[in-house]
Amino acid sequence: MFEPSREAPPGSATTVFVVDDEDTVRKALVRLIRSAGMTARTFPTAEAFLAESHAVPASCLVLDVRLPGLNGLQLQEALNRKGYPIAIIFITGHGDVPTSVRAMKAGAVDFLQKPFAGHDLLDAIRRAVGRTRDAVAKQAETAEIQRRYDTLTPREREVFSLVVTGLLNKQVAGELGAAEKTIKIHRGRVMAKMQAPSVADLVRMAGLLGVPPQTSAFRGAPGAS
């Protein structure tokens, strides 16, 4: 079912986690994954996987749908709730359209029906590892931006939420009942603390943090910019 790969290894730092209750399948997958130069770690149940920490940026999860205890879809849901950024490839001998659609909608990279070709799984693994790397990088960036945001004073946060709507200093001053000169100082501090080279960067940061822009009387007003 699984043929070893003769391709060049994508990197020794890559770890593939495998959760499948069949010992023969786990052993076959380990041989395949190792033949591609990657590390494999296996677990017979979803609970066994959850019981350990898996802080590996370059990784993915090959997950059987039908498992004793928590099934594959339930493990996927649990990982999504935890915000764990690992990309998942489902494998199954009992697939159906509703199950595959549900898995893909929840973020799965691929849904492979057993038996499948080894190169198909390895291709999916490479895509999944790339997605995990991107997700880990985004989480790290968001955490750093949150750290910067936490250094803002309450007034600076108000200015932040108005500036990202596109208001000028004069309009922000009107919204907050402050002098334009004062708002200019606050805005400068916000830009410095957030390390934002431009308002466009500040808007992107607000999007990552989920900071809602404040409603403004100037939005949509004639001459507003």
| Helix coverage percent | 40-55%
What about the largest sheet? 5 strands, parallel
Rounded Rg: 24 Å
The helix-strand sequence is EHEHEHEHEHHHHH
pLDDT average, as an integer? Answer: 88
Q: What structural class is derived from the secondary structure elements?
A: alpha/beta
Shape: elongated
Sheet with most strands: strand arrangement: 2-1-3-4-5
Distance between the termini: 62 Å
Query: Which spans have pLDDT < 50 for at least 5 consecutive residues?
Result: 1-12, 220-225
Number of strands: 5
The fraction of residues assigned to DSSP E strands is 5-15%
Tally of contiguous helical segments: 9
Structure description:
By secondary structure, the chain is of the alpha/beta class. 51% of the residues lie in helices and 12% in strands. The chain is built from 9 helices and 5 strands, in the order βαβαβαβαβααααα. It has helices spanning 23-35, 46-50, 72-82, 97-105, 118-149, 154-163, 169-176, 180-194, 199-209; strands spanning 15-19, 39-43, 59-64, 87-92, 110-113. The protein has a 5-stranded parallel beta sheet, with helices on both faces. Strand 4 (87-92), helix 4 and strand 5 form a beta-alpha-beta unit. The model is unreliable at 1-12 and 220-225 (pLDDT under 50).
